[in-house]
Amino acid sequence: MGAVFEYTDTIRYSKVDGELKLSIPALIDYFQDAAISQSEELGVGTKVLNARSYAWFLISWDVRIRRRPELNERIIVGTYPYRFHGMLGNRAVYMKTPEGEVLAEADAQWALMDTSRMRMTKIPEDILTCYELGDGPLFEAKGRKLEPLGGNAETVVCDPVPVQEYMLDNNGHVNNGQYVHLAMSYAPKGCEWSELRVVYKKQARPGDRITPVVSRDAGRVQISLETDEQACVVELS
Q1: 23 in any annotated domain
Q2: Which H helix or E strand runs over 181?
Q3: pLDDT at 143
């Protein structure tokens, strides 16, 4: 197959929010599924990597939302890798209608981990050769550094949330999408966000308690999800 992997779906009730539009956590789930599904199709999916003590860990998302599709709307989700360098890989991901209207675009950075040592490791050549690189990023991403909001930001420290079994993935830590699910429950309601940035910094595991710290300033909201250190930061604007 070529560089681009696509699949079609219908927005179902379990994927929508109170406005019957695709929720932002569900959007991230779609994007994550596309990336994983392409690797599965190319023969270097989760089970194959696990057998070699490898796993892709997500480092950051930069997502631009143009329109959230509604209940029962048909969509196409697509992705392709466009850069590999050392231990890191970059992917473009998108969602569009069958007629070609772009609904959302994303840039994601991943790192290959040696799970036996829990360290990032250089991507082996036999894995690299399974992928064909696409044309490049869909937009100029802002990277994986998120500056804290300014000194005028209003900040609220919320009650800690214990890590639950349903939050975990096959690596035994909180799934990438679950951080977004949790963060969105602390975001202001009734806002139509056009940009989402997520930076992953530390794994949260069973026994941890995640404390959401919510800051708001000038149309931006940051939700820092913290254990003993900052585990993940989600910014909406």
Answers
A1: yes
A2: helix 176-184
A3: 81
Hunting for tokens 């930069």 — which residue is that?
A: 62
Residue among 108, 220, 209 at smallest CA distance from 153: 220
Question: How far is it, in rounded angstroms, from Cα 70 to Cα 184?
Answer: 18
Helix (H) or strand (E) holding 92, with range, is strand 88-96
Q: Please write the tens of the pLDDT for every residue from 102-147.
A: 999 999 999 999 999 989 999 999 999 999 999 999 999 998 888 8
pTM of the entire predicted model: 0.94
Q: What is the pLDDT of residues 3-26, one digit of tens each?
A: 999 999 999 999 999 999 999 999
Q: Say if CB 71 and CB 20 are below 8 A apart.
A: yes
Query: Cα–Cα distance between 168 and 148 in angstroms, integer?
Result: 27
Distance CA 59, CA 103 (A): 23
**Which residues span the domain enclosing 90?**
5-128
Domain at 176, CATH number: 3.10.129.10
Cβ neighbours around 30 below 10 Å, total: 21
Distance CA 179, CA 188 (A): 16
Q: Which tokens hold the place of 192?
A: 């139509």
Mean pLDDT, to the nearest integer, of 198-225? 94
Characterize the bridge pairing of strands 230-236 and 220-226.
Answer: antiparallel
